[in-house]
UniProtKB/TrEMBL annotation:
This is Glycerol-3-phosphate dehydrogenase. It is an enzyme of class 1 (oxidoreductase). GO terms for molecular function: glycerol-3-phosphate dehydrogenase (quinone) activity. Keywords: FAD, Flavoprotein, Oxidoreductase. The keyword Cell cycle does not apply. The lineage of its organism: Bacteria, Pseudomonadati, Pseudomonadota, Gammaproteobacteria, Pseudomonadales.
């Protein structure tokens, strides 16, 4: 089941599995498959997590509101996964308490209590605290008329880093991961997929694979129709979700889950210590998923919901940044975008003797690992020596030997007395135990290279280009580090110049 990795071979290389799409589902499947002994090739037309996977509410959550749509299977699976991911990547997955202000005219207290009881007991909960009722006093950031509420646990996650860490896992288990590489066409022939690829510089090459996974997210159906010239088994509903980021709206570590008259909910989440992340919206999206942007109506909607709850009133001028993504949901003919199932659907197509195609419709950040296990269960009949599932207990890169973040930060400051504490904290939260690799051979501040601003040194940039597939400024500013919110336009330009001179685009043949 090994591929013949021979570059001089006149025929294209043969892999067991080729995965199209470098979002959370694609990298999750690639990592799982590589760890089971399959030879894996993954291509992503842009950067890892560039689209849907970095435009989430940055939560690992059970999905409290899905209970109203009777999605018990999805909620149970998601609740259990919170604990699994907390253990796998404690540097990027953190427990978070959510406060739900009670609005009696929207949902009666008994209904919320029943929902929270289910939430506490549907999934195995060891680390996360249970729910409770609250009364708000004069010191509450909420409006005076909101006197009661509820509190429960979920988790926050750095969504784009979760994707990158899974891609790193795949690579460390032998997978070949190629970003900025588009699959332009694929066809079946003699029991194999023949796959044609195009790099951003226009160069073309081909590979062959025993099985093909279509994890193209919002492009899943278009890929089947345009690139494979087949009929998609399901329609896709593209549902836009937009977020705004404002200066910190309230004190404390807790997040708020706000109910709105339209039965939807909006989160207000502490973000990067200095900000509050507010979202999300739910509306049908037509058009190119790569061009999605927040609309005027969505901005008004989010401000309105937040202003209905908090004493501190926000206006458009408070918005520091916004982002939008499209969720590719499996079309279940529902009239209401917020009621379309958040569950995932895997579609396997293969006639006897034909190379299988597995297409992924839908899915959530929280359940990516279970989705990958399901995908491999479906592909298993096509691979004789597939090893058993392994991802439930394996740490993600940086999560190895990580007892506590505070201990890691302390150890960093002790070993590198000259390191600014703020930088040590950010690095610990970003890289976990892998921070020692970033600091390998570093003895003094000057070894970190030029300071580009906001605690970003050229050594970190080099590390991200070498280890994490970063190529452009946006990859680093908005996905790998989130420093885009802290760096001035001038500092960002300095980073762009540095990348141009030191890291001109290389076709990442085997970015190892």
């Amino acid at each position: 089941m090994r591929s013949n990795h021979n570059h001089n071979n006149s025929l294209a290389e043969v892999y067991d599995l080729a995965v199209v799409g470098g979002g959370i589902n694609g990298v999750g499947i690639a990592a799982d498959a590589a760890g089971r002994g399959l030879s894996v090739f993954l291509c992503e037309k842009d950067d890892l997590a560039q689209h849907t996977s970095s435009a989430s509410s940055k939560l690992v959550h059970g999905g409290l509101r899905y209970l109203e749509h009777y999605e018990f299977r999805l909620v149970r699976e998601a609740l259990a996964e919170r604990e699994v991911l907390l253990a796998k990547a404690p540097h990027i997955v953190k427990p978070l308490r959510f406060i739900l202000p009670h609005q009696p005219h929207l949902r009666p207290a008994w209904m919320i209590r029943a929902g929270l009881f289910l939430y506490d007991h549907l999934g195995k909960r060891e680390k996360l605290a249970g729910s409770r009722s609250l009364r708000f006093g004069a010191g509450s950031p909420l409006k005076a008329e909101i006197s009661r509420g509820f509190e429960y646990s979920d988790c926050a996650v750095d969504d784009a880093r979760l994707v990158v860490l899974n891609a790193m896992t795949a690579r460390e288990r032998g997978a070949h991961v190629h970003t900025r590489t588009r699959c332009v066409s694929a066809r079946r022939s003699k029991g194999l997929w023949h796959i044609n690829l195009e790099r951003t510089d226009g160069s073309l090459y081909s590979i062959r694979a025993h099985a093909l996974v279509n994890a193209a997210g919002p492009w899943v159906a278009r890929f089947i129709q345009d690139d494979l010239q087949q009929k998609s088994p399901y329609g896709v509903r593209l549902i836009q979700g937009s977020h705004i980021i404002v200066p910190r709206l309230f004190d404390g570590e807790q997040a708020y889950i706000l109910q709105n008259e339209d039965r939807r909910i909006v989160f207000a989440i502490p973000y990067l210590e200095r900000f509050t992340l507010i979202g999300t919206t739910d509306r049908e999206y037509q058009g190119d998923p790569a061009k999605v942007a927040i609309s005027e109506e969505e901005t008004t909607y989010l401000l309105k919901v937040v202003n209905a709850h908090f004493k501190h009133q926000l206006s458009r001028t408070d918005i520091l940044h916004s982002f939008a993504g499209v969720r590719p949901l499996c079309d279940d003919e529902s009239d209401d975008p917020s009621a379309v199932t958040r569950d995932y659907t895997l579609s396997l197509s293969a006639c006897p003797g034909e190379a299988p195609l597995l297409s992924v419709f839908g899915g959530k950040l929280t359940t990516y690992r279970r989705l990958a296990e399901s995908a491999l269960a479906q592909l298993a009949p096509h691979f004789q020596n597939l090893q058993p599932s392994w991802t439930a207990s394996a740490p993600l890169p940086g999560g190895e030997q990580l007892e506590s973040l505070s201990a890691l930060i302390e150890a960093l400051c002790e070993s590198f007395g000259w390191l600014p504490t703020q930088v040590a904290r950010r690095w610990a939260n970003t890289y976990g135990s892998r921070v020692w690799r970033l600091l390998d051979g570093v003895h003094e501040l000057s070894d970190l290279g030029e300071h580009l601003g906001a605690g970003l040194y050229t050594r970190e940039v080099d590390y991200l280009c070498r280890e994490e597939w970063a190529m452009e400024a946006a990859d680093i500013l908005w996905r790998r580090t989130k420093l885009g919110l802290f760096m001035t336009p001038g500092q960002q330009a300095k980073l762009r110049d540095y990348l141009k001179s030191e890291h001109p685009h290389q076709p990442n043949e085997h970015a190892a």
